[in-house]
Amino acid sequence: MTVILLLLTSFVSAFIQSTTGFGYAIMFMAITPYFLPYNVASVLSLATSPVGNVANVFRRIKNVNWKQVIIPMLFATASTYIAIELTKSLELATMRRILGCLLFFLAIWFMFFSGKVKIKPTLLNCAIAGLISGTGGGLFSISGPPMVVYYLSALKDKEEYMATIQTYFFFNNLVTIGMRIITGTFPSFSVFMFLATVAGLLLGVMFGQKVYSKLNGDAMKKYVYGFMALSGLWIVIGG
């Protein structure tokens, strides 16, 4: 039964990721702790995410803006390690609710004012986005929203956005996996759990890409910010 639930959860989570650019970890971690230990669910999400990143970027490799991947990744790496160490002493339930509130209000703001607010792709903005993303990834296994806000504003079109953010997540996930192994916070899980999650993930990517190809730029942004707002509320309620 656990394997079936993992497949279905992964399918829905990957579908969302493939149509918004993020959300796999948020949706996966909103559901799986009901039938898996939280630490196992978190690391299973982290271990399977790179597969979805590769699947989403495979046909878009020429659209990757490598400068916008490498610079924030360097800053995210530093903050990820610090955040992972902090998880040993902080009250994470309260912090998750604060994160949820921030996501909700940030999404509402950009939903209505993104046309008036332009984040330039400067070194400083890259660094800030990377630092916040790394912190969120280390604390909650949720590193996407800061990069979504930054990339949607800084990059020129939806294909560059999807290719770049998936490439960023791929390297970010690998770094976080390595750091969890080094710090001893990477619990084991069964091969069947991993395979079921990957199977659902690949199906979700396949269907999600078909939907994404039909979205125009403005509709895509509203869809992304709408999901971000809902995920923020979900985190606040779920704690």
Largest sheet: none
Strand percentage: under 5%
Number of helices: 10
| General shape | globular
Give the N-to-C terminal Cα separation.
25 Å
- Determine Rg (CA atoms, Å): 16 Å
User: Averaged pLDDT, please?
Assistant: 84
Please state the structural category.
Answer: mainly alpha
Could you estimate the helical fraction of the residues in percent? over 70%
| Topology, number of strands | 0
Order of helices and strands: HHHHHHHHHH
Segments where pLDDT lies below 50 for 5+ residues? Answer: none
Q: What does this entry look like structurally?
A:
The chain is globular and about 45 Å long. The model has no long low-confidence stretch (mean pLDDT 84). It is built from 10 helices and no strands. The relative contact order is 0.22. It has helices at residues 2-20, 24-31, 38-57, 67-86, 92-113, 123-140, 144-154, 158-182, 191-212, 217-238. It is mainly alpha-helical and 239 residues long.
At a glance:
The chain is mainly α and 239 residues long.
What are the defining features of this structure?
mainly alpha, 239 residues
Topology:
Elements: H1 2-20, H2 24-31, H3 38-57, H4 67-86, H5 92-113, H6 123-140, H7 144-154, H8 158-182, H9 191-212, H10 217-238
Helix pairs in contact: 1-2, 1-9, 2-3, 3-8, 3-9, 4-6, 4-8, 5-10, 6-7, 7-8
